Amino acid sequence: xxxxxxxxxxxxxxxxxxxxxxxxxxxxxxxxxxxxxxxxxxxxxxxxxxxxxxxxxxxxxxxxxxxxxxxxxxxxxxxxxxxxxxxxxxxxxxxxxxxxxxxxxxxxxxxxxxxxxxxxxxxxxxxxxxxxxxxxxxxxxxxxxxxxxxxxxxxxxxxxxxxxxxxxxxxxxxxxxxxxxxxxxxxxxxxxxxxxxxxxxxxxxxxxxxxxxxxxxxxxxxxxxxxxxxxxxxxxxxxxxxxxxxxxxxxxxxxxxxxxxxxxxxxxxxxxxxxxxxxxxxxxxxxxxxxxxxxxxxxxxxxxxxxxxxxxxxxxxxxxxxxxxxxxxxxxxxxxxxxxxxxxxxxxxxxxxxxxx
Amino acid sequence: xxxxxxxxxxxxxxxxxxxxxxxxxxxxxxxxxxxxxxxxxxxxxxxxxxxxxxxxxxxxxxxxxxxxxxxxxxxxxxxxxxxxxxxxxxxxxxxxxxxxxxxxxxxxxxxxxxxxxxxxxxxxxxxxxxxxxxxxxxxxxxxxxxxxxxxxxxxxxxxxxxxxxxxxxxxxxxxxxxxxxxxxxxxxxxxxxxxxxxxxxxxxxxxxxxxxxxxxxxxxxxxxxxxxxxxxxxxxxxxxxxxxxxxxxxxxxxxxxxxxxxxxxxxxxxxxxxxxxxxxxxxxxxxxxxxxxxxxxxxxxxxxxxxxxxxxxxxxxxxxxxxxxxxxxxxxxxxxxxxxxxxxxxxxxxxxxxxxxxxxxxxxxxxxxxxxxxxxxxxxxxxxxxxxxxxxxxxxxxxxxxxxxxxxxxxxxxxx
Lengths: 357, 416
Prior knowledge:
Strand content of chain B: 25-35%
Number of domains of chain B: 3
Structural class of chain B: alpha+beta
Largest sheet of chain B: 11 strands, antiparallel
Radius of gyration of chain A: 23 Å
Shape of chain A: globular
Shape of chain B: globular
Strand content of chain A: 15-25%
Helix content of chain A: 40-55%
Distance between the termini of chain B: 25 Å
Distance between the termini of chain A: 36 Å
Largest sheet of chain A: 7 strands, mixed
Order of helices and strands of chain A: HHHEEHEEEHHEHEEHEHEHHEEHH
Largest interface: A-B, 56 and 52 residues
Oligomer: heterodimer
Number of strands of chain B: 21
Structural class of chain A: alpha+beta
Strand order of the largest sheet of chain A: 1-4-5-6-7-8-9
Helix content of chain B: 25-40%
Number of helices of chain B: 10
Number of domains of chain A: 2
């Protein structure tokens, strides 16, 4: 189990906490949705934001390192007064010379006065916007300094930079708190600089249920332990999809499965957003690792009913009610907890790779 | 139900006449305390094959897969038999809900229906939780004269609160219902269990019930409620699993009550799903697809936290048995002595459900497409087996408010 400090530094925990901070919840539920209380909801998860051409030209003229487009983790909005907050989760702060600063410069400009254009909204819809970084609390000070420095650079380059701020997760003795700098507190209308949002219980991991269980792009910014945890949640959800389809089957039936469908089921459709081909391929490898294991279990307990066929993908054959019961029993009993979740998934065969492309 | 009974019915009109006459005879026998044949009973079932509308042949296929032969009387009415003989009649009351009418003995009919539902992911009981019954009770108080007699049954059994080692072997918690213990076979198990019925005038119950519930929480766990019949003495006893016994003299009045409650239930399902279904929806904006998360969690707060031993027993009993009371599947991820996460399934409907279970309550994410019945079954079972006074919310709204809103615009059509 990760320590609290490690947990609040984990970007998957941060992203899911941010989503829970905007969910409708009754008072006293153990998790206080302070952003929801302030009227904010999720406008978009991981939206692709591109900069208008004139701004891209100004970036090029300025010589500042930047990206042409970004996918911030979440855009929050409060529609009645047109407030939009673009939030990026980070496990730590970074310096102006780091590679992450390229992304940050684009974020600070994209979330600025031209955000309505980047979001495809009618001009004037957005009355106030902010670019916000969500980091663990020890990194908040440095993060603020970096944002200040980047702001100065961008203004010198005559780029239309907007307001930026820092939100932080702070583990305490009795709760994990959301800590806001002055700008964030004002923008998000938080009741205090520090607001407890998850109650802590002794010996208990405070993480909430994960909406988004896995992010293949995190690489080194996630601990091995957290990576294994996220993989387990992803696998549980894929296994549930497969078992659910088997349980609902009306024999005789051949049920087709493909990695893309299973991944979209397990991630609320977020798989389709991962543009990085290597990341998407990594996800398909994970699916294959689990499905191969499940096929092995089914082969030993039921027969050769689940297999990958070239050009067809995975098929679960349910010829009769008795086979269906046997399949459901075998799949129900297996737990991916018994797998070595730290093990890297094997390479895809060439035809498997193409089948899912 | 006999072959003769079935053969007498060739049309909807004949069915109503037959069951009306049958109900009148039974009511007279009830009044004389000499019941010669079983009462008319209805089991309300939800059909979950994902269709909005079904043809008679589709109903025949659906029930045929479970060994039942349906013979059309008209587009929405069938006679039903299995290989042992006639069972009764099936009517499609609403697009998602059918009623099985039968004059079989109560016990074998209940076992038959339970087996039918358990064997079919396309069918489920209509689940009326204690919270739902509390709202229906308010309707009873408005519908009935104050001097009419109300009957309410409360059932709470803290099965997970035991003083002995939990039994987590592969025993079946679903079928059949435990037999009455005999004096000789009953063990000594200490736990809270309450099952009693209250029969009194509507005005008396109405004045006292809320105060009694605050004093003794098992009184929130209403498991049976009688709608007094406006046609005379007696009424219609609704059970938490959708069984309804006709103790009135009119089948038409019985059917009116079924339609009334069914319409409320259908509204509840729709509203629950509309509110609770979690999904990442896609909207098209100028620069492409944007996705946002919509939905609301189901939040259940226990009035008193479960002890660690009770919590453990609940988790083991539920997730180490394939046939468990809650009909859930998953592999709990332990996050503390009294906290687990389960990314699992409603094992009856085989639809996904993500759960956080703690000593203080339960939180559920219901992915888009998972039937609203999952929520109602979960709440019913929590009130019955864990905490009768549990407070239930969909998002930040009390669950009772959804039931009240669902019942607000429903017309009561008395057909006598």
